[in-house]
Design goal:
It is a single chain. The chain has a domain at about 25-265. The strands form two sheets. A seven-stranded mixed sheet has the order 4-3-2-9-10-12-11, with helices on both faces. Helix 2 packs across helix 9. The protein contains 14 helices and twelve strands. Helix 6 (about 120-125) links the parallel strand 2 and strand 3 (about 130-135). With about 350 residues, the protein is α/β, with parallel strands linked by helices. The protein is globular and about 55 Å long. This is Methyltransferase FkbM domain-containing protein.
Length: about 350
């Protein structure tokens, strides 16, 4: 359970840079640009006081509830037309529908409603949690949804320390595009230098500076290191986040991770000098080496063969080594369940 963070008394002192001429606050501001380690007490204080917005006590203000509105009808089309969201919704209902309420974290929360993986858990099942969104355009609409979760206009750092990074966002070239389509384009924003799935081809680019914190820092700021569900949709930064995560300091039951095999972060991790023996190439590479045509691309399930080679076996191996079983794969979306959990004992036999 997330408890209300306690805000320590602010004291003016010198901090950390080895220069007594820097006031504490000025020094901390400089160090926020990187690096400040995930469990630094002053970092946690700043995150609590300046980057966390508490849950709303008001009534929900959702497009989902605006029946008869053309705008809402257009906005809500993802609920019947966006296969990825529909599949994850079904998985969460199956895994958690009969479970006690838990704690979630959603990174890439957009406006707090559109294609949200956690709204169902919060509204229907009584969960609490944290919503993280880096894009200022998207985040400005999030508080108005009156979610019963903490929120943060920031990003998860792709390292184990806090840092300020450049966020590349995209807006439509067509100014008459409807709002739902604009949100889809906005959802492809990525950190500068990251190999993002959309490759920056979705719209006109605008850049912003964004404060990023390690995933562990958010949890410590909320006085918990136990999370029952994490949705990680961070447009290419997932490998760096997971590879630098202190796994022995947190407990997560279920992960949803959006990841494309073109992002070679996990592959590079295993193929570094001294790494393990490379995983055999996917079927399409074998066919290519034999001079045979590739099979047509199609969406696959984890219980099926993956002829397109879309599933990243290096990510699967990495998560297995961290104690997780792959429960489901669908076109770049992975669901992992902690192998020693009661939830896996109940559901993992379907793999």
């Amino acid at each position: 359970m997330i408890t209300k963070p306690r805000h320590p008394v602010r004291r003016l002192t010198t901090y950390g840079l080895g220069n007594s001429e820097f006031p504490w606050e000025e020094s901390l501001e400089i160090r926020l640009k990187g690096p400040l380690m995930a469990d630094d007490s002053n970092l946690i204080r700043v995150l609590r006081e300046e980057y966390l917005t508490p849950p709303s006590s008001g009534e929900y203000n959702l497009m989902l509830d605006k029946e008869g509105s053309k705008t809402a009808e257009n906005y809500n089309v993802y609920r019947i037309g966006f296969g990825s969201w529909m599949r994850i919704y079904g998985i969460l209902d199956k895994l958690f529908g009969d479970q006690p309420s838990g704690v979630f974290l959603e990174a890439g929360a957009l406006d707090g409603e559109f294609i949200s993986n956690t709204l169902f858990l919060e509204r229907d099942l009584g969960w609490s949690g944290l919503l993280i969104e880096a894009d200022p355009f998207l985040y400005k609409s999030l508080p108005g949804k009156n979610r019963k979760a903490w929120s943060s206009h920031s990003c998860i750092s792709p390292a184990n320390y806090a840092q300020k990074l450049t966020l590349e966002t995209y807006h439509p070239r067509n100014k008459t595009m409807d709002y739902a389509a604009e949100l889809m384009i906005r959802s492809t924003g990525n950190l500068e230098g990251v190999k993002a799935p959309a490759k920056g081809q979705m719209g006109i680019k605008t850049t912003y500076e964004v404060q990023c914190f390690p995933l562990l820092s958010y949890l410590l700021a909320l006085n918990t290191t136990t999370v029952h569900y994490i949705s990680l949709d961070v447009e290419g930064a997932e490998a760096s986040i997971l590879l630098t995560l202190p796994w022995d300091q947190i407990s997560v039951t279920v992960w949803n991770i959006e990841h494309r095999a073109e992002n070679t972060g996990f592959r590079d991790f295993y193929l570094e000098p001294g790494g393990i023996k490379p995983i055999p190439p996917p079927p399409k590479e074998k066919l290519r080496s034999q001079g045979k045509p590739n099979p047509p691309k199609r969406v696959v399930y984890i219980t099926e063969h993956d002829p397109a080679g879309g599933k990243d076996d290096y990510l699967v191996l990495f998560m297995k080594e961290k104690g997780y079983a792959l429960y489901d794969y669908w076109d770049g979306d992975y669901t992992f369940i902690r192998a020693d959990s009661a939830l896996c004992e109940k559901h993992c036999h379907v793999i």
